[in-house]
Amino acid sequence: HASLLGSPQDSLTLNLQVRRFREMISSNWKEDYIHKSLFMISIGTEDYLNFTKNNPNADGSAQQAFVSSVTNRLKSDINLLYSLGASKFVVYMLPPLGCLPIVRQEYKTGNDCYEKLNDLAKQYNAKIGPMLNELA
């Protein structure tokens, strides 16, 4: 599992992945190679699945605060990658998480999606574009 905030405990956070990358490049990689590379980031699903499971009654302000914490962590991790020489990024948006079969089964929604999780994904996706534009 990979996450931004480290939930569940055994997840490999993006920050830890970037720090391991830093250790690896200090001995093996040329800066020019890193500068030419495209860094693809697809992360966040585990964070939102766990938040929803652990906070089933979270109100709108708690959801917004969580989305902000996830996007701020992502921004920080991208900045760390940038400081290591990375300059080209693809950051994937989240799919409608509430429509994943495992989620529909867990929340017993039948053929319907679990909209609370979809709403969180929409909030995250709405913040990603402006955050990336700010970094550019």
UniProtKB/TrEMBL annotation:
Which terms does the record give in the GO molecular function aspect?
A: hydrolase activity, acting on ester bonds
Query: What processes does the entry annotate via GO biological process terms?
Result: lipid catabolic process
Indicate the family of this protein: Belongs to the 'GDSL' lipolytic enzyme family.
Task: State the protein's name.
Answer: GDSL esterase/lipase
Q: Which domain of life is it from?
A: Eukaryota
What the entry lists under Gene3D superfamilies is as follows:
SGNH hydrolase
Taxon lineage:
Eukaryota, Viridiplantae, Streptophyta, Embryophyta, Tracheophyta
* Keywords tagged on the record: Hydrolase, Lipid degradation, Lipid metabolism
Phosphoprotein: is it a keyword of this entry? Answer: no
